[in-house]
Amino acid sequence: MSNPYENETDYRKIPRQYLNSKIPKGRGIVKWNAFKTMPEQYKQLEEHIENQNKIEKPSLSSDQIETLNTVLNEKIYSNDVCEVMYYEAGYIEKAIGYIVKIDEYQRYIIIENDSRQRVKLNIDMIVQMV
Description:
By secondary structure, the protein is of the alpha+beta class.
């Protein structure tokens, strides 16, 4: 019976039973333990990488604000599903659902999705509405 992996050059693709048992397995993850001496450093590096992905809040022109207001009024009166893009903590997030409430004095809207979860959004943080 011939070995189906005899011409394979990448040992990672060959099942262990076909490999030469005299070849040592290696140190595995042990070789990387020297780099894990300072877990605080990993945390700081992850935070730094995360902060690089953040963006500043987009500023809207008066025309864009007027368009948002028009779309908002249309969605309220037609009771259509709307997709709202909003700025939160350095990222643009998306909420999809029906507009349940608008409070012009405290400047927020509440959107409810199909699974009855509600999201309270600050009107000033809304970037786009479809």
